[in-house]
Amino acid sequence: MSTKTSWVIDPTHSEIQFKVKHLVISTVTGSFKTFEGTVETDGEDLTTANIQFSADVASIDTNQTQRDEHLRSGDFFDAENYPKLTFTSTGLEKTGEDTYKLAGDLTIKGTTKPVVLEAEYGGAMTDFYGQSKAGFEINGKISRKEFGLTWSATTEAGGVVVGDEIKLAINIQLIKQA
């Protein structure tokens, strides 16, 4: 029987970013500043990973205070009633040397949908303090409307203000727990 290995996300060396089209012609990049997550594997076998992740919706940051407040409101995330977005993995399938398909259930604003993301293993290192660390880059796309983020507006010329497709760009550094 193999030993369980536990890891936690190192928030100081990780970032959770998203991009969305604005007025169809430009892209707005945002991030969640407060998040946490754990990964548990059987020994060193990454395909056995059980991943739990959550982000505080109120920590959303798009570099523009008014827009952030609008995103926290009932028009979008409704942070007051749905303070966290969560992800629970359902499978991690090796697709190449260091690449994986990460499947899981994403819950935003009380709506849970299955998603599949691309994950790339960046390797493992021991830092100056003797801690084992591992890095991953995770990318994917989701439809915001599928998660109840349906607010929409059009410009006078008929252009869409906010696109439906959200691109996720996540860089995670994990710290192995003793």
Automatic annotation (TrEMBL):
InterPro entries: Lipid/polyisoprenoid-bd_YceI, TTHA0802/YceI-like_sf
Domain Lipid/polyisoprenoid-binding YceI-like: 6-175
The protein, known as: YceI family protein
